[in-house]
Fold this sequence. Notes:
The protein is an alpha/beta fold. The protein has one domain (21-430). The chain has 12 helices and 19 strands. Strands 1, 3, 4, 5, 6, 8, 9, 11 and 13 form a 9-stranded mixed sheet that branches. A 4-stranded mixed sheet has the order 14-15-16-18, covered by helices on one side. A two-stranded parallel sheet has the order 2-10. Strand 15 (340-348) and strand 16 (351-355) form a beta hairpin. The longest helix has 22 residues, at 266-287. The radius of gyration is 21 Å and the shape is globular. The two termini are 33 Å apart. Mean pLDDT is 92; it is low at 1-8 and 14-19.
Amino acid sequence: MFRFxxxxxxxxxxxxxxxxEPFLAGKAETVxxxxxxxxxxxxxxxxxxxxxxxxxxxxLRAKALVFVQGDKKFALVTADALGFPPPxxxxxxxxxGDPSWTVENIxxxxxxxxxxxxxxxxxxxxxxxxxxxxxxxxxxxxxLSIRFSTLIQDAERDLAPITIGTESAFLKDWVRNRRDGEExxxxxLTVTRIDDEEGNPFAVFTNFAAHPTFMSANDMMxxxxxxxxxxxxxxxxxxxxxxxxxxxxxxxxxxxxxxRRSGNSSWERAERYGRELGIEVYRLWKEIETQPVEKxxxxxxxxxxxxxxxxxxxxxxxxAEYGLREDLMDLLIDQMVPEESACGFLRLNDxxxxxxxxxMTAEIGKKLRDQVAEKTGVKHPIIGGLANEWISYILSPExxxxxxxxxxxxxxxxxxxxxxxMAAALKGAEKLE
Length: 433
């Protein structure tokens, strides 16, 4: 034995490397477009009044990557969805029925499409019965929870060794800050390339911060919006049955800037934006060199939220849009605004996904990324926006108290929510340095 160890050291091979568990990954995808017979309403705009979608412009999809090393495993799931209510992931775990899967080793990352199913429609705690807010649909809740649970199980079935690499680039003039008087924008595009052990393309994970809001309340067909077009463009350019996953970032105040010559049609503007951004992803992907996975860690940081309340401006903005009155707010807060949440984290070599359970503004998102990079040394920390569940918009105290506007009014925990979430995120991220 000692001769064997001596030989390894002579060859420059660490003894522990011989016994290291292989790092494996599996992938799967599924269509999550609700059957039109379920009369599913579209989320994102209260003025739609829970009218059912009239058709399918392009299918909604969910995609999963499952990573396994020894007794550790993690599921990264992205979806063409507006967001998820707090009970939804727990229902997915319940339907999987495998004790090795918990809420702590699954991360759900919706694209925030405003032409996908309404969050409130898959929230069993929603007993409000308000059309603008969305009405709970048990059939839809059941169908989607089954599809997501099956998706994770499918991704785990066929595992293979992979290599990984991540790079970031700055993109100018793709987003603007939609809040009056604020100019901070997040122009960072981050792309993670995943290849099989022979160097063939396996999957691409990309992160960018911008609202999918080219379509208005008058557009009533299901669509993944520009993130859906981005993913299909990348998959077409690379080929080889590669799977492209998309995660939105700190997009709370970030709006997309329409590309030139994209026409007056909202559908055309969304498609052109997604296709051209997909080309940028492809360009960056081609430059990435992959390496074996030497750092695979994840964590889950519980988050005790500040006292639930509503902003003084709420009735004039979000309240008006969603048909709420002051006498209904206590019921809303009690039923649909959680008292606690969590931040989830996944590290794969130079990539660290910081899962934030809401819509963080770009200003505090950038501060959080910078602080995580400084404290952990991770080269590419990113914000996984609306991770696992939607709790609120997340602003700095100054933005909450001074700027007002729609984002502040739809923030249900007062001015200290931003600092509270940032503290928990830093604490969780530091565990993975």
